Amino acid sequence: MFRIALAILVTLLAAQPSVPGQTSHAVDLRTTDGVGIAGTWYPVNQTPAPAVLLVHSVERDRKVWASFAATLQKNGLAALAIDLRGYGESTRKQTANGSETLDPRDFTARDYQDMLLDVEAAVDWLQAQPGIDGKHIALIGESFGANIVLRYAAINPDIAAVVALSPGLTYRGVRTDDIISQIHTPLRLVVSEYDPFAFESCKRLVEIQKEAGLTPATNAPTICTGNLHGAEMLLGVRHLPQIIITWLKTAFTHPPAASTPPVTAAPSENRPVPAK
After folding, report:
1. pTM reported for the whole predicted model
2. Which domain range does residue 203 map to?
């Protein structure tokens, strides 16, 4: 199993209400390069439970997942939403010269690639949690975050399933076309029909998968009507959250269905969203 060696410091803070009868907890992780990663943990009562790691896009933070994470929790899937380095509350890095502040305006391509360390810290934390089934951990990313989880899944075959919302062939220098054929775990690409860059990117990624001889179960995308981008599809596309949850539960037990019919975007949410 591929591992990026990580030392993880975990601090559980006071519980915060999520939905009636459920709680969420703040968690602090630390990567091997010294970055403090903030997260919100949505545990479930049943054990052993599958878990889902949620990864946001650039210019956003883990709050974009609040509603969906609570829905996952309600459906028996534990969830961990993290702030990638430089965003939200993940803005401090320990160095030999002390603590420094991370500012995405100063980031290079290497800084964005290093966000794989953030994901690895979160996956290691999930696998260490009592009551979590370490063999049933899924990744969901949106936009740039979709590219990050795709790259991570390509190097860690222990990931049980991946959902990529509006991935691109490249965002901030993080590519997907060079690694998509290396992902053999159940994979669902989700994209809006009128989100041009993401839609064309998904078409190309599916082509690459088919050229590599991957099975239909791993290369059938979900195409939504409308033009919503990333996590916004979860709020504006009717039934999409439940479609993803049903697919995840299926992927955890046996290969997913070969195709999923398009779903419909609510007209009030049908607005242009720039690709990131």
Report:
1. 0.87
2. 11-269
